Structures are given as C-alpha cells and as structure tokens.
Amino acid sequence: MKISVIGCGYLGAVHAACMADLGHEVVGVDVDAAKVALLSAGTPPFFEPGLPELLRSAIASGRLSFTTDISAVREATVHFIAVGTPQLAQTAALDLRYVDAAVEGLLPHLRDGDLVVGKSTVPVGTAARLAELVRSAGSGATLAWNPEFLREGFAVKDTLAPDRLVYGLAPGDSVGERLLDSVYASALALGTPKVVADFATAELVKVAANAFLAPKISFINAMAEVAEATGADVTQLADAIGYDARIGRKFLNAGLGFGGGCLPKDIRGFMARAEELGVDQALSFLREVDSINLRRRGRMVDLVTEVVGGDVAGKRIAVLGLAFKPDSDDVRDSPAIDVAVRLAALGADVVATDPEALETSRRRFPDLNYVASVDDAVRGADAVALLTEWKTYRALDPTLVGSAVATRAIVDGRNCLDPVQWRAAGGCTEPSAPLNVLAGANTQMR
Ligand SMILES: NC(=O)c1ccc[n+]([C@@H]2O[C@H](COP(=O)([O-])OP(=O)(O)OC[C@H]3O[C@@H](n4cnc5c(N)ncnc54)[C@H](O)[C@@H]3O)[C@@H](O)[C@H]2O)c1
Ligand SMILES: O=c1ccn([C@@H]2O[C@H](COP(=O)(O)OP(=O)(O)O[C@H]3O[C@H](CO)[C@@H](O)[C@H](O)[C@H]3O)[C@@H](O)[C@H]2O)c(=O)[nH]1
To answer: Which of 50, 290, 306, 322 is most buried by its number of CB atoms within 10 A?
Structure first.
C-alpha cells in the first residue's frame, strides 16, 4: 500500500516508520523543514526507544521518505492525518487549525479511491465535518477516523502490535474498511481486535479512553492524600486493590500525577466539547480529576520546602527528571518541569538534569540551570527532588548520592526508590543525618 503521513511529530514519525517497516511505501510530510531534514537523515527529532533503528532501516529499504512538499502525497492512496491538536489557551478546547490546514492541503492532490484517515485526537463531530469537506471537493476520495492509542516510550510496540484498532467509517464505506484492513494486515493477523464504528463513536472512543485513565491516576493520588493524613501506605493500598481483576494494578502509581501532550489536554478538550454539546454535567468529574492532579505538583513543592526548613530561597535543589514520563524527552505539560519552575520562582537554586529531556526543557525554559549528570546535579544539594522515574534513577546508589549532597534529604515524587534501602544507607554513612525518603516511607507523594 502507498501511504502518506501528514504531520511527523511524536505520532506521525512513529506511524510512518512503522508502516514502512510493515512493507508499505510511505512518504511523511511536515511543514517543519528542520524536522524533515533530520528524519530524512534517519535521525528522529525526539527520543523514542526503537525508533532510530526502525527509521534507518526503513529509509535504507527505500520504502520511507520525508518531505515538506505536500504534492508528494499524489503517489499515495491512504493519507494519514497526524498533525497536532493542542489546547487553546482561552477555552481549553482543542485547536483544529492544523488538522483543517492538513486536510485542505491534501484536497488538490486527492484522486478517486483515495482514503484520508484522521489519526489526530479531535473533538467529536470533527470527522463528519471533514468528511463533508473531502466529499464536496469532488475527487471521489473519502475519509475515515482511526484514532491512535500509542503511549510515548512504547510507541513503536504500540503501533506494530496495538491493543485494538478502531475504524470510524461513513455508513456503508466498505472500501474504506478494506483499505484500512490492508494497511493493518499484520496487526489483524496477530488477532488484534477491530472495532468498526461510526465517526462519532470512533472519536469518542479515543477521548473516553483517556478520560478513563486520567481518573484512575487521580483516584490513587486522592487516596495518597488520605493516606498521608492517616499514616497509611498508598503503594500497599494500590497493590491490594489492584489484585482485584476488576480494578487492576496498572495506572495506580501515585506520585506527581499525569502530564504530557495528551491526558491533560484531552480531558480538558473533552470537557470543552461537552459544554458545547450541552452535556457538560456528564463530565464534571473530570474537573475534579484535573484539580487533584494539579494539587500533586503543589504538594511536591511544599514537601521540598519542608525538607529544607521552610524556605527554599537560596537553597540548592537537585531536580532529577524533567520529562513528563520516563523513556521520553517530551516536556509538554510535564509535572516535573512545573515543579522545577515553581521552585526556581520561589528563589531556589534549582540544578536540573534528565537523561533525554535536557534539550526539550532548555528550549521551553531556558532560564533553569541544567546539568548533564546526576553527579553534577546532586553535588552540594540541600535537597534532592526525584520527579521522573527513569530506570537509571531507580537504580541510584544511595550511599553515593548521600556522600555528594550537602544535606541528606531526598523527596521521591514518583515512589520509585526503596525507602528502607535509602534510609539504611543514610544511616550507615552518617547516622545523625539519615537520608530522608519522604515519599517512600511516609506515604507522602506516593
Ligand atoms: N504523542 C502521542 O503519544 C499521541 C498519541 C496518540 C494521539 N496523539 C494525537 O496525535 C496528534 C499529534 O500529536 P503529536 O504528539 O505527534 O504532536 P507533535 O506536535 O509532536 O507533531 C505534530 C506535527 O505536525 C506538523 N504539522 C502541523 N501542521 C502541519 C501541516 N499542515 N502539514 C504537515 N505537518 C504539519 C508539525 O510541524 C509537527 O511536526 C495530536 O492530536 C495528539 O493528541 C498523540
Ligand atoms: O500509574 C500511573 C501511570 C501514569 N502516570 C502519569 O500519567 C502520564 C501519562 O502516562 P501514559 O499514559 O503512560 O503516557 P502517554 O504517552 O501520555 O499516553 C497516554 O496518552 C496518549 C495520547 O492520547 C494515548 O494514546 C495513550 O493511550 C495514553 O496512555 C505520565 O505523566 C505518567 O507519569 C502516573 O502518574 N501514574
């Protein structure tokens, strides 16, 4: 199948590379010439495990290319729309200008039998509007909506072997269904469930999934607030309720809460759309989900402040982790960055590091003090704030960290350290000032 992918960011670049890996001929189109140059050279413009290898082998095979020239889509039959749908500052609704521009840009190049396939996350009602736009242009092309559920850090695996495929199709569009079946033949052969739905259902499946996951995280963070007030252990609580198959342990990690380019903006965009539809009451719970989530960031700042004696001004705070989650360099709405920036605004001397997100952080927040290594970050620190649970941070040696800091205090905002081990190490090396893993032992920030 000949495929074009319009928009080559975190979603589109992975989708393009994976489709080529599956044997399709793919052209990726993006308006960002620098991104296209990097991708064409086989270098992902962002960090995603497994993507560099896939990109290079697909380009070498001749099945994958990138361009800024939209007319290159003429060779293709299936055209994926993977451009951004960021949150509008004023209303929290999703900004559809890039999706609209992408579809309008495609129109002159579409031919009879072509299929435009929306992958971007959009408010319900968008696909029907765009389908009409495509139909009225008169090329004979049609439109489908095929939402994407990949997670950053697992994007390649999630694309090659998704949990499910959702096709939003116009009534009776069997041609569209057959084309998508050809695109996804290998996933279907693996037994991936396929849901064929109307446009509205397909669009809603996407935001409903995120509107289910976000409350799960806020639920456990709400329990963490109660646990903190009672001395209970929220991780044990999560383990115990998670054994119930109806609940499940996944997405019950309490801590700094959710961020990224998806969950926060998607639940806010969903609420904004519900308001337009006059059903805002149905989603009012998401407002509480959002505020529980944002409270975690404030609590983290408070804990660091407590640890250094009530005022962070002039204190050296080592920040470990800036990305919104491990295995990503994405700092869009990153809780870690938010905490680092708030601490700096309170006058702290923040020294921040991250294995992959230094460049993305520096681009957005040039005024923070960034260092390349944990050693440089923790040296002489009055407190350490662990904000993203990278594997390398989980494996840190408490004795080494303890011997580098000025004060043995670490606040584990992601509950990823073993408090017993950290306390023991602190006690061994300097009994009078043990490492204080607030989060781990005392259920705070769990
Ligand atoms: N990032 C994820 O994990 C993920 C997962 C599922 C769904 N989504 C959804 O996918 C969409 C894209 O997200 P993303 O994270 O990849 O965003 P992104 O900002 O990383 O990428 C968007 C890309 O689109 C390009 N672009 C904008 N207008 C264009 C145009 N007219 N023609 C060609 N290219 C254009 C931009 O230059 C950018 O490279 C969003 O709707 C998002 O909600 C993202
Ligand atoms: O138990 C948990 C699980 C996650 N998080 C946080 O939640 C955020 C989102 O994590 P995750 O969902 O793994 O990452 P994303 O890559 O943003 O993926 C989400 O958003 C995508 C875009 O819509 C969807 O495609 C995915 O299915 C959906 O999981 C991150 O900040 C995590 O740190 C927690 O705090 N506790």
So the answer is: 322
420 C-beta neighbours (distance < 10 Å), count: 11
This prediction has a pTM of 0.95
Question: Cα dihedral angle (48, 50, 56, 59), rounded to 10 degrees?
Answer: -80
Is ipTM beyond 0.85?
Answer: yes
The gap from C-alpha 251 to its chain's centroid, in whole angstroms, comes to 14
In order of their start, the domains of the chain are 2-197 (3.40.50.720), 199-446 (3.40.50.720)
> What H or E segment, with its residue span, contains residue 67?
strand 64-67
E strands in 169-289? 194-197
Residue 408 is given by DSSP the state -
Angle of CA points 348, 426, 384, to nearest 5° = 20
Write the pLDDT tens digit of every residue in 1-21: 999 999 999 999 999 999 999
- Cα-based torsion angle of the residue sequence 302, 425, 407, 381 in order, rounded to the nearest 10 degrees: -80
- Please give the annotated binding residues for substrate, written as ranges: 149-152, 206, 251-255, 259, 325
Cβ-in-10-Å burial (0-12, 13-18, 19+) of 28 comes to buried
HEC readout, 76-117: CCEEEECCCCCECCCCCCECCHHHHHHHHHHHHHCCCCCEEE
For residue 212, pLDDT over 70 is answered with yes
φ/ψ of 326, rounded to 5, equals: -70, 160
- In the block, residue with structure tokens 């806010």: 268
Residue 224 near ligand 2, beta carbon < 6 Å? no
Between the CA of 210 and the centroid of ligand 2 the distance, in Å, is 8
* Cα distance between residue 66 and residue 40, in whole Å: 6
**Cβ of residue 332 lying under 6 Å from some atom of ligand 1:** no
Asked if 339 contacts 387 with a C-beta cutoff of 8 angstroms, the reply is yes
For residue 352, give the nearest of 328, 327, 379, 317 by alpha carbon.
Answer: 317
Please tell me the chain's helix, strand, coil percentages from 3-state DSSP, rounded to the nearest 5.
50, 15, 40
